[in-house]
Write a structure and sequence with these properties.
The chain is of the alpha/beta class. The chain has helices at about 10, 20-35, 45-50, 85-100, 110-115, 140-150, 165-170, 200-210; strands spanning about 35-40, 60, 120, 125-130, 160-165, 180-185. A 4-stranded parallel sheet has the order 3-2-5-6.
Length: about 220
Amino acid sequence: MIKFENTWDDHLREEFDKPYYQALRAFLKQEYTAHTIYPPMHDIFNALKTTSYQDTRIVILGQDPYHGPNQAHGMAFSVKPEVDIPPSLKNIYKELQATVGCEIPNHGYLMKWAKQGILLLNTVLTVRAGSPQSHKGQGWETFTDRIISILNEREEPVIFLLWGAPAKKKRELITNKQHYILAAAHPSPLSAHNGFFGCDHFREANQILSSLNKTPIEWQIESI
């Protein structure tokens, strides 16, 4: 049984006994034995362990984890402090600098965001080294769709930032009108100029939080 040590335990407990998750677990056991898999096994659920169900105010939805050495640590778009900032995150920082005035930090560790109620959720939580989307279609999507659906059922509003086509497909899971959806192109260098740059999601998210009498996000990540 996976333990998050917060209210996700109550909401996700039943998932781990379902046939799809049992099949996923068997697949992962084989993959971690035979291949290099990211993130390390103990980091898979870091996003959920850090940002509880009731503390989630914003969801930033990624795809699958970074597939390079030492990058992925269980939070979408984030890397460990000593790792070079990946291109997509560099573009996120550029958008923050242009629209909110944040200085670009010297690392890509987004724990500060997670601790403010930003769930940094990938739709697939593991990947084989050097092989993007290698764990697609193995059951993670069912698990993470359930997370989105659980948040959709919540009365307290959630702001969903959906970047790129795969994330935008999750719109169909967000049916309750109290929630907010901000959609744009993915921040990847391949697509950032097609609608991510200039989307102004960071400012808009804070405006929504203020309108709900919630504390805005402090987006600035300090250099170390």
